[in-house]
Structure formats: structure tokens, C-alpha cells
UniProtKB/TrEMBL annotation:
Taxonomic path: Bacteria, Pseudomonadati, Pseudomonadota, Gammaproteobacteria, Pseudomonadales
Entry keywords, A to Z: ATP-binding, Hydrolase, Nucleotide-binding, Transport
Residue stretches making up the ABC transporter domain: 4-242
Annotated signal peptide: none
Protein name in the entry: Iron(3+)-hydroxamate import ATP-binding protein FhuC
SMART domains reported in the protein's UniProt record: AAA
One term of GO molecular function: ATP hydrolysis activity
Enzyme class: hydrolase
Species: Pseudomonas chlororaphis
Family designation: Belongs to the ABC transporter superfamily.
Superkingdom assignment: Bacteria
Length: 262
């Protein structure tokens, strides 16, 4: 079982002055324990995607450390990281005519040699990944012809085909209708591997996350269980909107109702 630790991360986009705060990370620290589902929440532009990019070795932090267990991610090779960390992003890749089967099979690439073809084991793993997201039978479909929700599930299947030790999700439910939002997060939860996900819908975050980190203007400003974090006062402070926070009548986790002004 694998843990992720981010310690005092600082990062500023290339060409952005240090006096500007948009997208800048400052002293950001968080932990994902083995098997834990951790949510990252905050307003648009608060630094969620920037922090995730530092975590999966896309944007090198200016300072601080990203450790997978005892290994500094930024001292390892991209291949080493791809064998252990799978990422599901908001944007869909350009598939250039690839079928669903071919997109999912790309998840096996980090585990193969440069000129290796797909083995029977690779094909079996890819098939199991497609089955786990409810798309078995779609193998021959062109990825480009799928709906947004179907594409998102194919990308999750590709991530699962990597057989990762850690999963990083950037707004994974954006393109999904309510049924598939719930199904996707339930599938991720059942994997039992460490997961760090930025989640826009706070009610979904409350329902599925073991712990939450709140990021605002590049700083982690709160962390804890959903009940500890999702308070009326914090939501007003960070999101600038009043909310009613009560308990879900069936499951007991926090339920947020935004209050609109007439």
C-alpha cells in the first residue's frame, strides 16, 4: 500500500511575477494515506490543478517535496512514476482515430519495453478495466464518437489498466450525468488504493471522501473530515456564498444547500 506526501510546496507559473497570486502555490502540504480517498476543494483558480500537476510530476515545484512512500517523485524517471501513479484529467486526449480498446491499452505502456506488443496478460487487464467501468463491448468503437461521459469512463479504464498504486483525479465527474458521477466515484472508492481528487461538487466530496483539503489563493486553509471542513463559516469565507449545512437524512454526511439571494 502506497502513501503520498506533499510538503511545503511552492510553485509559480513560468513568466508570472512573484507579486501575483493567481495559480501560485505557497507552503502547500497534504497527505494521502494508503487506501484513503482524499478530496481537494476550493474556488476556481485557487490552485487545485496546479497542486495536482506537481503531484504527478508535470509541473516541477519551486520548493518542497512530493514523496510516494519514501521516494521523491521528482528524483525518479517519468516511467517510474507512470508505473505507480495514474491520472484522470478534465480534458480528453486527442485520440486520432483510436478505438476504445486502443486507448485503454495505452495504460499498459509504462509496464512494457519500447518495442513490446500487447501480451495476453495486457489484453486481459485492459478488458477487466473496461468491464469495471461498464464499457465491455465498446472495444471497437471509435473514441471520438463517444459521449463526454463515455469518454471519461474510457480514460478511467486506461488509468486502471496501469494498475497504479496511487490515483489522481482532476474534476473526474465534470462530464457525467448524476448516475455516472455516483458510479464512477463508487468504483474508485472500491479500488482501495490511495486517491487524491479535486472535486467541484461539494456534496459529492462530502459523500465519498475520507478527508478534505481546502485550497484558497494557493494555500491550504483547512483540512479534516467532511464534517469538520464543510462548515457554513468556511464556505462563506472561501467561496463567498452563504450555505445551509445539515446532515444527509440517509447517510449522515454533511449536506450543503447554497442560499441564493433574491
Amino acid at each position: 500500500m502506497t502513501s503520498l506526501n506533499l510538503t511545503n510546496l511552492a510553485w509559480t507559473p513560468l513568466g508570472q511575477g512573484r507579486c501575483h497570486h493567481q495559480f501560485q502555490l505557497r507552503e502547500a502540504s497534504l497527505r494521502v494515506a494508503p487506501g484513503e480517498f482524499v478530496g481537494l476543494i476550493g474556488p476556481n483558480g485557487s490552485g487545485k490543478t496546479s497542486l495536482l500537476r506537481c503531484s504527478y510530476r508535470f509541473s516541477r515545484p519551486d520548493q518542497g517535496e512530493v514523496r510516494l512512500d519514501h521516494y521523491n517523485v521528482w528524483k525518479q524517471t517519468p516511467r517510474w512514476c507512470a508505473q505507480r501513479i495514474a491520472v484522470v484529467l478534465q480534458e480528453f486526449p486527442d485520440a486520432f482515430g483510436l478505438t476504445v480498446e486502443e486507448v485503454v491499452a495505452m495504460g499498459r505502456t509504462p509496464h512494457k519495453g519500447l518495442f513490446d506488443g500487447d501480451s495476453a496478460a495486457d489484453r486481459s487487464i485492459a478488458r477487466q478495466a473496461l468491464e469495471s467501468v461498464g464499457l465491455l463491448g465498446f472495444e471497437a468503437h471509435a473514441f471520438a464518437t463517444l459521449s463526454g461521459g463515455e469518454k471519461q469512463r474510457v480514460i478511467l479504464a486506461r488509468a486502471l489498466a496501469q494498475q497504479p498504486q496511487l490515483l489522481i483525479l482532476d474534476e473526474p465527474t465534470n462530464h457525467l450525468d448524476p448516475r455516472y458521477q455516483l458510479e464512477l466515484l463508487q468504483r474508485v472508492k472500491r479500488l482501495g488504493i490511495g486517491t487524491l481528487a479535486s472535486i467541484h461538487d461539494l456534496n459529492l466530496a462530502a459523500a465519498f471522501c475520507d478527508r478534505l483539503y481546502v485550497i484558497d489563493h494557493g494555500r491550504i486553509v483547512a483540512s479534516g473530515t467532511p464534517a469538520e471542513v464543510l462548515t457554513r463559516e468556511l464556505l462563506q469565507q472561501v467561496f463567498g456564498v452563504q450555505a445551509l449545512v445539515d446532515q444527509h437524512p440517509l447517510s449522515g454526511y454533511p449536506r450543503i444547500t447554497w442560499i441564493t439571494q433574491p
